[in-house]
Design goal:
With 132 residues, the protein is mainly α. It folds into two domains: 17-80, Arc Repressor Mutant, subunit A; 85-131. The protein contains five helices and three strands, in the order H-E-H-H-E-E-H-H. Strands 1-3-2 form a three-stranded antiparallel sheet. It is globular, with a radius of gyration of 17 Å. The two termini are 24 Å apart.
Length: 132
């Protein structure tokens, strides 16, 4: 876990590290945890904090900048960009749908039935609601 941002890298994951950083930063931005204008750590500082290469963090920042989540101002730093409410809602929806799709695909690959997957999903929702 980074001491600069609440990002956790799973070294055992098949997902590339740059993608893990990118997706977690998107969640922090879209959820409002990192509001527009928030100064992000430099590429080097984040790399050191996450114990990964500068090239990896640079790739994450470049992808996020291309997608409009962050902006870099030469000599000043990297900042969270303003994302309109409609786009935020679409991004949140897309992220959740992707996670659910990935979970369903994994369950199907392990040959679990629709009924079993639905039972698990319902139980997880119930657990989560009881924590609130």
């Amino acid at each position: 876990m980074s001491n600069l941002l609440p990002i956790h890298i799973d070294e055992n994951s098949r997902t590339p590290i740059y993608d893990q950083i990118e997706s977690q930063l998107k969640i922090l931005i879209v959820s409002g945890t990192l509001p527009p204008g928030t100064v992000l750590p430099s590429i080097r500082k984040l790399a050191t904090s996450l114990s990964c290469s500068v090239i990896t963090t640079r790739r994450s920042y470049q992808n996020l900048e291309q997608q409009g989540y962050i902006k870099t101002i030469q000599g000043k730093g990297t900042f969270v960009a303003h994302i309109d409410i409609e786009n935020k809602d679409e991004q949140k929806k897309a992220a959740v749908k992707k996670a659910l799709k990935d979970a369903v695909s994994l369950g199907k690959n392990y040959q679990y039935s629709d009924e079993t997957l639905l039972t698990w999903f319902t139980a997880l929702l119930k657990e989560e609601n009881e924590r609130d």
